[in-house]
Amino acid sequence: MKKYSLTLFLLIIFFFYGCVNRNIYLSERLTESYMRSRWLPPLDASRTTREQVVEKLGNPSGTFENGRIYTYRLIINEWKEGMSDSEYLDYCCTAYYNEKTLDKRFEQIDGDGALLVVTEENMEKYEKEIISSMVEFHLILTFTADGILNRYSLIRVRP
Amino acid sequence: MRLKYLLTCFILVLVLQSCIMLPEPEHGLHDGRGMIKPEDTKTLQIGVTTREAILLQFGEPDATLNQQTVFVYGWTTIVGEIYVFIFNERYYMELRTLLMIEFDSQNLLKRFEYIYTDSEEGSTMKSAIKWVSKEKP
User: Fold this and answer.
1) Closest residue by Cα to residue A26 from A124, A101, A131
2) Is B1 touching A (CB cutoff 8 A)?
3) Is B103 helix (H, G, I), strand (E, B) or coil?
4) Which residue in A5, A66, A67, A102 has the fewest CB atoms around it within 10 Å?
5) What residues contact residue A85 under an 8 Å CB cut-off, 6+ apart?
């Protein structure tokens, strides 16, 4: 009976070993509030103008309803000098990391990082950086007929 | 008897190794934007919800059709993952989901539907275009 229990116990460990997760998901650290406080200019509905937004963030990724709605696809580009192929292979398509790797990437963000607005024009140039970026947010801004910010939202779309 | 029992266990372990599906929360999103769950669309009302509200809630669409009257949101999820122990290989079973949203001339929601396709880009766009041409029953 004892041996049977032991075998069963070992089998359970064997099967469930892969289910134990010691990794950290990016969404735990890259929150909307982090994005707002660290990377976005202050936005004030009924005060901020369209021109001020464009001055801070550049041209939008998309426009809707004859320019009444602006959309910004935002990533944090960690590689000031561009990303090497080996870095790309290391980082691409990864949604979670161990704490050490994540700390390294956050250090890099603080040192070299910059907010990048993804547009049709730069998508090809920053293809590797976009795929490997740790996070992507969409900033949606709607303006009044006078070009004053009316409503806005920040949505994390990836991961 | 004991040897037989151990041998059976060993064979079972080997065989069942390739049958285990590993659940991996965010990694399950294999490609594209974050998924929009059906419960997120519960507040959408035909003839009431505006294009602006959709954009504020879901973000920029992955594609638009017919002069922005149709929004396409797409993502690929892993619905199963098989790890074949003997070959040390992982195989993913993918599902491409599109949330199709159409607006009327007043920028109000006309219809929306989830459609499923395979993950190749050509098939995705074909499915989206087919949906657009499909009339509401």
Assistant:
1) A101
2) no
3) strand
4) A66
5) none
Residue with tokens 């289910």: A19
Residues of A in contact with B51 (CB under 8 A): 64-65, 69
The residue written with tokens 């003997």 in the block is B86
- In tens, the pLDDT along B55-79 reads 999 999 999 999 999 999 998 887 7
Q: Which residues of A touch B (CB under 8 A)?
A: 7, 11, 14-15, 18-19, 25-27, 61-62, 64-65, 68-69, 71, 73, 95-96, 136, 138, 140, 142, 151-153, 155-159
Residue B21, beta-bridge partner list: B82
- What pLDDT score was predicted for residue A24? 54
Q: Which two tokens stand for residue A121?
A: 């024009």
The more confidently predicted of residues B43 and A26 is B43
What are B114-122's contacts with CB under 8 Å, separation 24+? B114/B38, B118/B94, B119/B30, B119/B31, B119/B76, B119/B94, B119/B95
Give the best residue of B18, B40, B60 to mutate against chain A (max A CB count within 10 A).
B60
Instruction: Please give the pLDDT value at position A112.
Output: 81
B27: pLDDT strictly greater than 50: no
- Residue A55 above 90 pLDDT? yes
Q: Which amino acid is at A127?
A: E
CB-nearest to A156 from B23, B34, B107 is B34
**Identity (one letter) of the amino acid at A125?**
K
- Position B15 scores a pLDDT of 62
Of A14, A26, A157, the CB nearest to B59: A157
| Average pLDDT over all residues of chain A | 82
Does the distance separating the beta carbons of A151 and B60 come in below 8 Å?
no
Are B59 and B124 a contacting pair, CB within 8 Å? Answer: no
Instruction: For chain B, give the number of residues.
Output: 137
